[in-house]
Amino acid sequence: WVISVEDWALIRRLVADGLPQRQVARDLGVGRSTVARAVASAGPPKYGRPAVPTAFTPFEPAVRQLLAATPDMPATVIAERVGWTGSITWFREHVRRLRPEHRLVDPTDRLTWLAGDAAQCDLWFPPKKIALEDGASSLLPVLVMTCAHSRFTLARMLPTRRTEDLLLGMRTLIEGLGRVPRRLIWDNESGIGRGKRHADGVGEFTGTLATTLVRLKPC
């Protein structure tokens, strides 16, 4: 069973979104047994494979060119213009990945969130130091998770802002919420990731929960 953590997480999210396993296998170009194993697995694969070109790779430059000119062009129209003949579902996934890079932000735009679609995660530091068992005191971070639709907020104090404590904190708050948001949105927190890469363990975390973690670009 050779599959990367990124593919494993994508398979689990697509199935969680309601796509049949047979369709996911066809769209991603993997075996049905691979999809079944990813869905049934209790954890991520222990090893991955280097990124290789996919059927979408030759079309990406043309897609980027169209998005640069018209960021909101529907994926179906883009597929027709670039001559894509494969799965439209998989094509939409790639267009969705590329579109934010070309869409200008409207400062007057108002977002409307669907229930369960996203939760915003942030760190807050109390104004006073917290006394520790060893007699010292420290400013400890508080992980705050706010549901985008309802504005319902949960919070938990963490011992550090290292990746392992951030992941454990998110897991604890999600358990308290009783549901897994489809997306977890973070600002540019180093414990979650830097540049284009998530921190070690983040892909395994999101794949296990069949969710997606989105890191916003610095303003």
Set down the secondary structure blueprint:
Blueprint: H1 5-16, H2 21-28, H3 32-40, H4 60-69, H5 75-82, H6 88-98, E1 118-124, E2 130-131, E3 137-138, E4 142-147, E5 153-157, H7 163-177, E6 183-186, E7 193-194, E8 197-198, H8 202-209, E9 212-215
Parallel strand pairs: 1-6, 6-9
Antiparallel strand pairs: 1-4, 2-3, 4-5, 7-8
Helix pairs in contact: 1-8, 2-3
Task: Give your account of this protein's structure.
With 219 residues, the chain is an alpha/beta fold. The chain has two domains: 97 residues, no CATH class; 98 residues, Ribonuclease H-like superfamily/Ribonuclease H (Nucleotidyltransferase, domain 5, 2-Layer Sandwich). Helix content is 37%, strand content 16%. The protein contains eight helices and nine strands. The strands form three sheets. The chain has a five-stranded mixed β-sheet with strand order 5-4-1-6-9. It has a two-stranded antiparallel ribbon with strand order 2-3. Strand 4 and strand 5 form a beta hairpin. Helix 1 runs parallel beside helix 8 and helix 2 packs across helix 3. It starts with a helix and ends with a strand.
